[in-house]
Amino acid sequence: MDKILELLINYSYLVLFLGAVVEGEIFPLLAGFLVSMSLMNLPLALVVTFLGSVIGDWLWFLAGRRFGRKLIDRWGRFLWLKPSKLAWLENHFAKNGKTTLFMTKFIYSFGHSSIIVAGIAKMPTADFIKVDLIASLLWSVLFVGLGKLLGHSFGLLRIVVQDLPYVAVVLILLLIGVQILISKKITKLN
């Protein structure tokens, strides 16, 4: 995590773009965190995240369309992908592909796999692009914004943690005091 943060600070927008292409949620969250610390520009971080997400999604979609079926026919049995499951997925994408793509964009680890399946299922490219543009825009705003919010919370947490030893000492003294009072009351009752 520290290495990613260091790379993101030094080559922030390039790393953000590549991270959005390949990985997903972690990079826009870190970008939002850096925005909260004034180390990145919010509009530029949003644009770079959006572009990286869209380009990455299109690459996954094209890979699924071009190579997916061949790979599944050859190696699918090792992934427990039977022809019946693949037929069900293709049928599902024919009926509910747009909704599935949109929803899975926001579910960690499902985004890329559903995009690949959309490519395998030969979802119409125009439909894919429309859904992906809208979902990627909302996704970028959500995750960069969430990172920014968490970054502001981190500043507050840092202030609280700085005072934590004092708070802990006071709480321990209060607990000891309460325990002494309770034990005196119990002793008087006996």
Terminal CA distance reads 58 Å
Number of helices: 8
Helix content: over 70%
Provide the succession of SSEs: HHHHHHHH
| Mean pLDDT across every amino acid position | 79
Biggest beta-sheet profile:
none
Number of domains: 1
Question: What ranges have pLDDT less than 50 throughout 5 or more consecutive residues?
Answer: none
Strand content: under 5%
Radius of gyration: 25 Å
The shape, in one word, is elongated
User: Structural class, judged by helices and strands?
Assistant: mainly alpha
Total strands: the figure is 0
Characterization of this structure:
With 190 residues, the protein is mainly α. The protein has one domain. Helix content is 85%, strand content 0%. The chain has 8 helices and no strands. The radius of gyration is 25 Å and the shape is elongated. The N and C termini lie far apart (58 Å).
How would you summarize the topology of this molecule?
Elements: H1 2-10, H2 12-22, H3 26-36, H4 42-75, H5 83-104, H6 111-120, H7 125-162, H8 164-189
Helix pairs in contact: 1-2, 2-3, 2-4, 3-4, 3-7, 4-6, 4-7, 5-6, 5-7
From the structure above, extract its key features.
190 residues; 8 helices; elongated
Question: Gist?
Answer:
This protein is mainly α and 190 residues long. Helix content is 85%, strand content 0%.
